[in-house]
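TODO from last week: model Biopolymer transporter ExbD.
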Amino acid sequence: MAMQIGGEGGDDEPVSAINTTPLVDVMLVLLIIFLITIPVVTHTVPVKLPEERNQPSQTKPKDIVIAVDKEGQIYWSNAPVPDLPTLLSKLKAEAVKVPQPEVHIRGDQEARYQTIGQVVFTCQRAGIAKIGFITEPPPRN
């Protein structure tokens, strides 16, 4: 095997070959580490893990459902509420109950945010601690 060590002919050209020896050394070390650790990982206690379930929360009968349609009309369950002061008085009567019911707001997709914001603000003024929004669940694939 012959090897040229500079000097002859006087050309000082850079070597264009990549030295792959360090790369091979690192890859062999990684291969050995993986071969040793894989059997350790697979020998674990056999446990049946629970499967993931994503279920939308169901509205409880004691919860208050307030709906806002696209025209801005407010509904308590299915009954229309004429104005915000009436809604405030109804919510104040519910806020003193123990346990306090949750308020679920169903806002139409085309409803103005201002109307829904006024409903949330009225709930806060009445002292309701839990306010939630009901949305459509994503389609299943």
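Done. The domain at 64-133 is CATH 3.30.420.270 (Nucleotidyltransferase; domain 5).
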